[in-house]
Amino acid sequence: MAPHINNNKAYANEPTIKYVEASKESFWGKRDFFVSVRHDDTGGEHYADGFEILSVSGEIIRKRVLAHPHVDEQPVTRDARSVSLPDEATEVDVRAHDNVHGYGPKVRVPIPAKKVKINFKAK
After folding, report:
1. Chain segment 51-77, per-residue pLDDT in tens
2. Which domain CATH number covers 93?
3. Which residue, of 2, 72, 82, 109, has the greatest Cβ tally within 10 A?
4. Domain residues for 80?
């Protein structure tokens, strides 16, 4: 998808979560998350600069920073390792962030039994 034009200036869409995978819970009670973020990065002036895993009440559980643009790698998939989820968590929210618009829309991801791998794909 090409960037939109606004006042003769190119800018990218807001960042969106395309895919979330989480490992089965480890022996230590943690999960590894792999999150794919889609954004029309245009370079250092406008790019997706991270994502967050949040409780459904909005508390940040883990934040992952993307330190540079990924113009030619879309969607970009990165990990968040050894994430501790609250025992009572049955869902988490995941949202991406860009350095111009801020946060994109949240997606809610179900958290099944501790021994089950999680796969979420945006429609």
Report:
1. 999 999 999 999 999 999 998 888 999
2. 2.60.40
3. 109
4. 4-121
